[in-house]
Amino acid sequence: MIVEFGHFALILAIAVALFQMVVPAVGAWRRDVRMMEAGGTAAVSQFFLILIAFTALTHAYIVSDFSVANVYANSHSTKPLIYRVSGVWGNHEGSMLLWVLILALFGAAVAVFGRNLPDSLRANVLSVQASIGVAFGVFILFTSNPFDRLSPAPFDGRGLNPILQDPALAFHPPFLYAGYVGFSMAFSFAIAALIEGRTDAAWARWVRPWTLAAWMFLTLGIAMGSWWAYYELGWGGWWFWDPVENASFMPWLAGTALLHSALVMEKRESLKVWTILLSILTFSLSLMGTFLVRSGVLTSVHAFAVDPERGVVILAIMILFVGGGLALFAMRASELAQGGIFAPISREGSLVLNNILLTVSCATVLVGTLYPLALEAITGEKISVGAPFFNMTFVPLMIPLLIALPFGPFLAWKRGDLPGAAQRLAVSAGVALLVLVATAAYVQRGPWLAPLAIALGVFVMLGAVSEVLYRAKFGQVDRAEFQRRLLNLPRAQFGTMLAHFGVGMMVVGIAATSAYRQELILAVKPGDRFELAGYTMEYKGAIAGKGPNYEEQTGEIAVFSGAHQITTLFPSKRLYDAPPQPTTESGILASWRGDLYTVLGDAQSGGGFAIRVYFNPLVRFIWIGALVMFIGGGISLSDRRLRVGAPVKARRRQSAAA
Amino acid sequence: MTRKQRRGTLIGAAVVLLGTAAILTLFALKDSIVFFHTPSDVAEQKVKQGQRIRLGGLVAEGSVKRGGGTDVEFSVTDTIKTVPVSYRGVLPDLFREGQGVVAEGVLDPSGHFRADTVLAKHDENYMPPEVADALKAKGVKLGPSATHKPGTAAN
After folding, report:
1. Residue of B103, B94, B93 whose CA lies nearest to B126
2. Domain end: A122, A141, A160, which one?
3. Which of A351, B74, B79, B136 has its Cα between 20 and 30 A from that of A511?
4. Residues of B whose CB is below 8 A from A298
5. Are B122 and A352 a contacting pair at CB < 8 A?
């Protein structure tokens, strides 16, 4: 009954979305305030209807209602509650429902918080947002309905893929989707601006918080996915340049560029046309990501069985929105007014460099991801493009970006002082140089690029901090005055600092762990001792155990530093009951120096086990860096200047109130 | 600086960077891509020795032999031809006889394939599309594990 209720709510939501797509846009066209106002109401009701549908499906999962085909296929009565809930989006149908739920949530947020938007802009934004909702709603209803019933109801479900039964992965999809779908706001705003033929600094000020929020979620979502792959898959790697990973990384790169170009547009009314184009492209890449993951056209280490028919429908939706958006852009872009002038060496200039480097690097990732598809379509040859390709193309583009990054915030708007900026960065550069020498002397092996990359990361980290210190006149005024100035700095300044600091941390972590990782693969019998990266380990044996829905073999490895035992690691192999599938649980000793990472392999014929031991130096910096970036985004978002939104002209406010 | 000059600088910078990226991409595509082959391709000598390839097919029934330590020997078959593979390391969780597999490595002069990577997968029901296509092209009838079942996708 509740399931039918949810099903009905979904159908109703699509009808409401259809109304929301047409009525406000017509209202904006005819300047009919009542019709425009209807859009807000519709957006909020659409959100609640989809929420009802989503809750109904979640309820079916919680009570294990196996008469629902989707629950039967992806859940099992013995699963712990948290994974029964996360199972809702651990499958195609449910995850698409989550997708439209988040889409509607953003639409409703515009309706509620966008009171200070000009009426017609708000109406057009809601209308575009609803059109995406209609397309995906219809897609769900006709090709991937999560509410389909089974008769007779099976006794128990088939279970959720065990590797998805994991806390980090339970929350990875919602964050990732909040990011993907959040960029729909930038898209809707861009289309609305093109329909109106008008953009200004205020437009950028409205778009930026939404883009920033989406970017934050995407950053954390990608980091969670990477962290999960690291500890759950048991390969010790954290990024594989796999098509599914690239699919989420491309919108991130474009979104990062958008965040920075919107800044130029807001402060200087420059780069308008480019920002609009970037808004369309960023969401297009999000749609493409959804398509690549959902259609299964690419071979991926992260691929799950999918139905290729649905891919075709998503492809059609993508072509409709991307093609429509770009066509509208081509027609209207020339009508947008030109912005201010600036010198190449200026804050704007540095942000333009940021944009060029980010979009070009995004393009190389796109080529690497789609080239196998194109080649297969043309010649029929099947190839794979892996890490070496991206190391040769993406990495060289990141190096100038990272060198330029600390300079940007030191340059003034319009015309900057490069020698001055260099002078202010001298200390950071000096320390980075020391780090370079020290790293090279300490490791004495590995690629020559690695110490440079680590030094570059340190330069970015220190550069970010020194910018804030410089703004607060550190060393130039006494301590009390410095503290007062520091506290008076706008929050966005700290947000920028943290985000850039996080980038630096990531660079250090990536370089260190890629270049200096140590690995040991061996077969062990109880009592065997071995050493890696200054740790001595003793394999004690394996014990069989049982969890709520799995059986496991757990290896016991005592870890010593010198003669002193630090800890015991318990890597295990699990065999789940439903579906019967083995998984690897790694045993990890985390420290600032790096992770000691152990994996239990297969049982050996003569007793004992094969094990793999890795030492991944500074690997935590990668995810902590991402977390720092997320926090930086949050602090920026809490800045009053962003929240207040654009100033509303008195005349318009009166007419809105009337 | 006039608007025209500014635009010129911007476009110039963008073109230089795009050009660099395009050159890098072309070199990278030439050097670092890996072709996919079936055991029949190997038997027909389509694969040069020493060339890095991906070998895909099914793990032949009864072919998995674990040697001393972490050495593993198995055969990859497309049911017409079979190629022996050796691999040192820990196999992915879902590696099993009769299941689809993709191994990456180099063919040695004796016709033995030395894999350094055996591709893992996340899902029992997933078959890498190349393997599924290649087997279909050879007229192999795929079991239920290779067909795409709705409702099993995730992520």
Report:
1. B94
2. A160
3. A351
4. 129
5. no
